[in-house]
Amino acid sequence: TLNGPNEVEVDDAVWYSGAVTVSGQIDNVEETFEGIHYSTEIEKVYYSKGEYSPEEALEADFDAVNNVYSFETVDEDYKGIYSIWAVDQAGNISEVQTVDIHIDKTNPTLADGEAVTFVQKNNNYFSKVLNFLTFGTYFNSEIEVTVKVKDDASGIQSISLISSDENMKPKLVADSFKKDGLTAEAEFIIPAKEFVGSFTVEVTDNVTN
Description:
Shape: rod-shaped
Order of helices and strands: EEEEEEEEEEEEEEEEEEEEE
């Protein structure tokens, strides 16, 4: 069983925004010798990040009465497996089990290159690309803003464009929010005929970073 903050499934992988608690039950298999059933009690349960590695093994919490173990992963960006195994009182080592762990702690960012573009839609249906650095002067028609973003782990959940003027709210163009793997883009319309101020892009990934 896996438990962690902001759990979400993306493309058949379960992601979390922080450390994950891993728990499970160890089956202490009985053996038979000359009609006698017996088993050796589990002594300890170990785990390691990545492939089975006794040299890097850490001891999990273990409830010997119920044969239940638990441990917490590291609280860092991670995409891979944890290996888990048990050792009984006779020194026998169980088969190694693995669990997939996906942790995304990194904030999404604007895409590389020209991530935000402003285009003025003129009445004659031609478009004029506005210089982002000088944006804020008078214009006489709507402005279309395209925002491109990326996330290196769980992917993008949403994009928002926020104006410094509370009375002027950019409108998301219907069906313009599109995701392609770990990147996404969206288009907004600025309906005002005149605007002086600034815009902030807010990007949220699938685990709410």
